[in-house]
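From the shared-data thread, chain only:
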Amino acid sequence: MPHRSDNKQFVEALARGLDVIRAFNEFKPIRTVSDLAAELDLARPTVHRILHTLEHLGYVIQTDNGYYLSPKVLDLGFGYIATRGFYGAARAHLEKLAAKIDQAISITELVESDIVYVGRIEVPKVVAYHVSLGQRLPAHSTSPGRVLLSGLSDEELDRRLATPSLSQVEPMITLPVDELKAEILKIRKQGWAMTSQTMSLGYRALAAPIYDATETMVAAIGIVVHSSEISEAKLRDEVLPDLLDAASKITEDFVTMAKLPRKRVSVAERGYVNFAASVATSI
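Structure, as tokens:
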């Protein structure tokens, strides 16, 4: 098999090793040296050396009938999931939804009394509501914020509402605490939130929750539209079902991820994870 790149930095042996790993699938879970060599147009000795290396590293297991992948292969994907967080796992669903409804989609997490934008799919608009990754907004006056607050216990909800926002953005409307709590209890029952001109004049927003495998609300996806473009009725009757469907599919992915074999975390790695978490909460 000829080299696929003239770049001197390109490692052909690594590329061939990845080709072998990708050749295993649900239709061909067990592979032999001969069939891999024929499919990948590689010499049998080359395939044998690659499989021997992968077996030594624990990524494949040899049987009398051939080789099959070991669960350790999943480690290759955990780094992506860990570094990309919710956005990495949700991106495909967000892109599909954005294309269907022709609106920008954001994913947010709750940090104390604020929401923080951790992912976003943009859609070109003449009149658009602009936010940046890492931006904080007061949770009590945003639709994703109210969704996320509705997932808290009553005691924790009171604590968050009493905690000052660190956002530099002042909302247009701030409800009295009693009215806000009544609205949040309503959202807790219906499973979604809609706001109108609470943050910016002329804009309304819609949001839905995302849960993990323990049924804990961990994030929210939402859209912000100009009132001249979409009415509240259309937002509720036509857009909301698609938003809820996307949130459900992202939740399903998180639940599936939780069932995968977990890599043991070393003391050093655990220290890094804790450090990263502390940085995230200080954004």
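The chain has a mean pLDDT of 84.
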